[in-house]
Description:
Blueprint: E1 3-6, H1 11-21, E2 26-28, H2 46-61, E3 65-74, E4 81-82, H3 95-105, E5 113-124, E6 127-139, E7 155-157, H4 169-175, H5 177-190
Helix pairs in contact: 4-5
Amino acid sequence: MTTLLFATNNQHKLREIREIIGTSIQIISLNDAGFEGDIPETGDTLAENACQKARFVYERTGRDCFADDTGLFIDALDGRPGVYSARYAGEGCSFDDNVRKILAELEGVENRKASFRCVICLILEGKEHLFEGRVDGIILTERKGTDGFGYDPVFRPKGQLQSFSQMPPYLKNGISHRGRAIGKMLRFLGN
């Protein structure tokens, strides 16, 4: 069985990735690998950040690994929060702080179109491979649902009646930006 190190300290992402991948590949966490410390994330694009994180971990562990960077891009906010999605309300902010900020910025705004995008950088035997996933939708006027994390309570994918937070994991993971990027990575690994 293939084993990959997922270069993240985010337990929500780790759980979601393991749910998407299932048992076809063993995913180990930074903690499982004995890796400690912060991983830099200073790029201007999702791809730059994903590659920076994957390279940082690969150079220190020598293990095949992957990292992702994900952003929420809102049309009415000129693409914000984008690459700053995790820290949109400021350093040390919570998911709740970020959601509160975008809801305040969009108050009274009719155009609520948005997209979630994810880029994964896989380093396999020293070579980098990129995989992208995207899902379009809208930002709701209030939170709906209790599952998921991040902006999930206020993002409703196009063609769906529920926010990501209202969906069971199998449904969300089947249509999400991260699910689509992971699907591409799995197809690549299957070849």
